[in-house]
Design goal:
By secondary structure, the protein is mainly alpha-helical. The chain has 6 helices and no strands. The protein folds into 2 domains: about 80 residues, Arc Repressor Mutant, subunit A; about 40 residues. Helix 2 packs antiparallel against helix 3.
Length: about 130
């Protein structure tokens, strides 16, 4: 694979990671945005409309849409820096996955000694909530 193709793949991977991060932030904090800003952000980032499409729908310029997207992105990231809800969600999701994995091991092996791990993980989740 040549360098140009690899660069395009990397750029697309980065774009997908960014959209995933922004969609999580929007899920947690989107209601804190004004209705107009929320709709523009949702159309551009989540629904993958072009700047021109969003601008036409909202009755503003493409530059206006771009500015709103940047401000919304900054606001959502600032909310996360202060509240850490997405971070806590991701940690809890991982711990629940660990519980599921241990439960499967217990089911398959019958080794109930592993129940102590589930208790410890459950306590950790409850203490973090």
């Amino acid at each position: 694979m040549n360098a140009e193709v690899q660069e395009k793949i990397n750029a697309e991977d980065e774009r997908l990671r960014e959209v995933y991060e922004l969609s999580l932030l929007f899920d947690f904090y989107g209601e804190l945005l004004g209705e107009h800003k929320k709709q523009i952000f949702e159309d551009y980032v989540l629904n993958d409309y072009s700047l021109a499409e969003v601008a036409g729908e909202a009755g503003i310029s493409r530059q206006g849409v771009h500015d709103i997207i940047k401000r919304c992105t900054r606001s959502l990231k600032e909310y996360e820096e202060k509240l850490h809800l997405v971070e806590k969600f991701e940690q809890t999701k991982k711990l629940v996955g660990d519980i599921k994995e241990i439960s499967e091991e217990i089911r398959c092996s019958g080794n109930v000694c592993e129940l102590e791990k589930i208790t410890m993980i459950s306590e950790q989740i409850l203490n973090e909530i």
